[in-house]
Amino acid sequence: MAEAGSFADRVKQQADIVRVVGEYVRLKKSGQNFTGLCPFHAEKSPSFAVHPTKQIYHCFGCGVGGDVFNFVMEMEKCAFPEAIRIVAEKCGIAVPRQKERSPEERKENQQRALLVEMHREAQTFFVKQLEATLEGKAGQAYLEDRGLDKEAMTRFGMGYAPSGGDALLRHLKPKCNEKLLVESGLVSRDQSGGRLFDRFRRRITFPIANESGKIVAFGARALGDDLPKYLNSPETPIYSKSNVLYHMDRAKEGIRRQDFAILVEGYLDAIAVARAGISNVVASCGTSLAEPQIKLLGRFTRRVIVNYDPDAAGQIATERSLSLLLEQDFEVRVLALPAIGNKKADPDLFIREKGAEEYLKLLKEALPYVDYLIARARQMDLTSGEGKRQAVNFLLPYVQKIPNRILRSEWATRIAQQLRLDEPVLRAALSKAAAERRSELKIQPELVARAAKPVERRLIRMLAEAQGFRQELAKQLQNARLYHGLETEKIFEALVIASLSGQPVQATEVGAALEDRDRRLLFEILFEEANEPTWEEAMSCIEALQHRRAERELADVQRSIEANPPGQELRGLLEKKQELMRRLAAAR
Ligand SMILES: [Zn+2]
After folding, report:
1. Could you please report the per-residue DSSP string of 174-241?
2. What is the pLDDT of residues 280-321, one digit of tens each?
3. pTM of this prediction?
4. Ligand 1 center from residue 39 Cα (angstroms)
């Protein structure tokens, strides 16, 4: 795909796959490779490998593999040109202006750029309203009342949307057309379809940025008793609420460094925690967590402390998020803050009343999620059979979601003990539930059972890498048709063609021409530890293949002899048999 000399090729030459992948996966050096947990399937021990010199990655579990572009395309779910751009940007390579985009694509990009620009403009407008208008002063007073000083307002970009109903509209209108205004979600059209008006009115605004720090939406809290209390931007071409985590743009460094994230519900919670000096906090913004948000988080850490509101809705959100996080193999703890007086405490209130120190202390003591769930189950009436059944039914789905069988079993024992349940009964329920668990089958890696013989593996490796004699080796293999009939025939064929071309062999391109199982085998072979190949070794591998072929031929001849052919033919077969046996004996 990356044609020699093209921009893509240049990016590929300059990009460091370890660094690019390292932004998504935590990699550890292991021998000549770097390994980590595969981002494409759920696993507990790393089977995902990146090769720094070959500039390829491969998962020994689920079999995905390719070069830096394949990785980004898979990860960002984008097309090739977009992947080039992303890799180039990550590596600080200037991207030439695109001209060959399709007209629709160009239009969409322009539109997205305009929408981002509108949000930037709106942000400036809201901030000015908060700072410099009479109405805004009331907004400031409200924020100060909640313990937010000027410094915090500036730091988190808080603003104010005036009550007039068309202040922002009038501000933006000279610069944008109506259609785009409505599409931005900043402006709505009334029911009858005519009049335009501001979506946010008489509200404190909080800019919501995407991961790279561009404002793509707003959250807004009513200043008075207007409903809803919290109102967010609708889904737009630049914003999908399930894709964005509030504060992620500023939290990601801290999350990566500390290898865990704190997940809270609302932006005020995230702001309170961040202001307490804990930067690795993100908010799911109201609704419970969605899978894309978890994937986003998973790029930076696999450890989360969930600290949702302690009310009923918060509990439900906590439990729903737990399920999803467990499915994605996160290590989850839950922080349930104690009530303050008779008030249930969200992180914002708690930190205001009890201080950052106390919050940090509780954070460190946050319970592993199963203990949290057991504590919840224990609130049910466990004296009756019905109550116990309820408790088990409450817990089972979570236990089922643990991908690791041993862990699952440990938790079953623990639950049985804590809830005083009959363990065999619980286990029976568990294994029945496990049998129904389809997703586990899905992540079961398809085994590459075809163990290619060591000789074949070695030759394949040489064809891919032995710059000095690759071409000569390919010629010999092809002339003697030595790989015909082997299970690895297709791999050999592709590599021989590539080697004879005289161009450097690109593993990913050879792989792309192969069927999936062959590509996997090729990548596995490329990742094996191996010595520098020599021509002598190549020759002995070729001899071994010749030997194997003679053995195969001998077996064929023997079968023909046993079929009792007419005399003339039999004599010919017997001579052939003698000749083959001589050859095999000589090779020994
Ligand atoms: Zn995998």
Report:
1. TTS-HHHHHHTTSEEE-TTS--EEES--SEEEEEEE-TTS-EEEEEEEESSS-SSSEEE---BTTB-T
2. 999 988 667 888 898 888 878 889 999 988 887 888 888 888
3. 0.61
4. 7
